[in-house]
Fold:
Amino acid sequence: MLERTVREKTAVENELDKLYAENAARNADEPVQSTPPAIEQLASRVQTAERERDEAQTKRDSVVNQIARNDLLYVIVSSLN
Structure:
């Protein structure tokens, strides 16, 4: 899940960079106007992918910590027997 969200974020960032470059090339001499809806949607997707990545990393860290605690508990219990 973590790898999928990182890939999605990268893909969206690449697409966003491409749209910015295209928009800049077309409007080089024009004053900056409002952000095109496509860019806003991609920016939203980037934020969603980043949030999902952070949630997946937190969940992974929690599972790793729980496994470490269980392993430590097993070692303690084994040493008592």
Observations:
- The chain has one domain: 2-80.
- The CA atoms of residues 3 and 69 lie 25 Å apart.
- Residues 2-80 form one domain.
- Helices lie at 2-26, 37-80.
